[in-house]
Amino acid sequence: LLKHNDVKDLKCDQCDYATNNKYYFKNHTLTHQTSKKCKCTLCDYTTNFNSRLKRHLLTHKNFKCAQCNYETNNKSHLKTHLLQHKDSKYVKCIHCCYSTNKKPSLEKHMLNHSDLKCVQCDYTTKNKYSFKKHELIH
């Protein structure tokens, strides 16, 4: 017995694709167009679908691990990588979001932070929180 849904009314004249859904059929016909509307500005990739271009652009984006020098262009790969750090003990910079599991690395990083100096008096500190608290007294 042939079901009603088994008959595909919309058939592509350029390939074997067939469907009953007008939206799917319209999107399919775009795949045969020679002039692609959406082009990646970073490489030669072209497509007729903006959603596909957006997905493609993620391949050019770098996702960096804040705890080590791992880098990837795939967000899910970074999430998997971050699980490796979950149980490791790491130390955080008190001035910014930098963190590491190596104390010597943190000590070297701390050299990047110069003293914060109050412009209204001689007060100096490396701690942003203390500095902001101090500014309130003026």
TrEMBL record:
UniProt subcellular location: Nucleus
GO cellular component: nucleus
C2H2-type domain ranges (all copies): 63-90
GO biological processes: segmentation
UniProt keyword annotations, A-Z: Developmental protein, DNA-binding, Gap protein, Metal-binding, Nucleus, Repeat, Zinc, Zinc-finger
Record has ATP-binding as a keyword: no
GO molecular function list: DNA binding; zinc ion binding
Function: Gap class segmentation protein that controls development of head structures.
UniProt family annotation: Belongs to the hunchback C2H2-type zinc-finger protein family.
Protein name (record): Protein hunchback
Organism: Photinus pyralis (Common eastern firefly)
